[in-house]
Amino acid sequence: MKFLAQLLLLLLAAFAVASDYVDFTIVGRIKFSVPADWPVIANKSSADKTIFGFQIPNPADAETSDSSNLSITSSYLKQAQDRNAFDKKPLSTDPSAQEQKFADGWRCAKFSADQKSTSTHYVIWDCSRIVADCGVSVRIAWPHLPKNPPDYDKQMETVLSNFLASVGPSKPLPK
């Protein structure tokens, strides 16, 4: 009986954690999940291209113009030449971006930049891959702020890793 009670508690905890996320589907092709407390700060969609932007809550950026954020762009790749062009496209337009192995199946590059208006130093990751028949690009950026926890960079890399793991086809691919 004790085992059943522990199993029930574990299932309830898993349900509570799962309900803290919001699932999105892009034009019936791509799906992903974000924490429920991430406000949508940008959304533009057409049959060929969709962009979502989210602000990642960070108490350290309160009363500043800085913020941690993540965006996802999905572009419909109609033909083989579109897929080839997406695969060859540079990950980032920043010349200091360094490609790094980060998440299985994703090409990722990391760089740093200063926000011109505040001179705040940001860490930026750009990642891309083809999912189903779409080119998917993800960018995460976060500021280095005095009130950030000491392990904030590591926390944000975990956020990125979890997000990338949630991106996939919205329905099973034909075999």
Structural overview:
- With 175 residues, this protein is of the alpha+beta class.
- The chain has a single domain, classed as Sandwich (Jelly Rolls).
- 23% of the residues lie in helices and 39% in strands.
- It contains three helices and ten strands.
- The strands form two sheets. Strands 3-4-5-9-8-7-6 form a seven-stranded antiparallel β-sheet. A three-stranded antiparallel β-sheet has the order 1-2-10.
- It is globular.
- Residues 1-18 have low confidence and may be disordered.
In CATH, the topology is named Jelly Rolls
Strand order of the largest sheet: 3-4-5-9-8-7-6
How far the N terminus sits from the C terminus, by CA atoms, comes to 44 Å
**Average residue pLDDT:** 86
The oligomeric state of the chains shown is single chain
What is the number of helices?
3
Give the fraction of residues assigned to helices: 10-25%
Number of domains: 1
Strand content: 35-45%
- Give the biggest sheet: 7 strands, antiparallel
> Radius of gyration in whole Å, from Cα?
18 Å
Structural class: alpha+beta
Per DSSP E runs of 2 or more residues, the count of β-strands stands at: 10
List segments where confidence is low: pLDDT < 50 over at least 5 consecutive residues. 1-18
CATH class descriptor: Mainly Beta
* Shape by Cα distribution: globular
Q: Specify the CATH architecture.
A: Sandwich
| Order of H and E elements | HEEEEEHEEEEHE
Key descriptive features of the protein:
single chain, 175 residues, alpha+beta, Jelly Rolls, seven-stranded antiparallel β-sheet, three-stranded antiparallel β-sheet, 10 strands, 39% strand
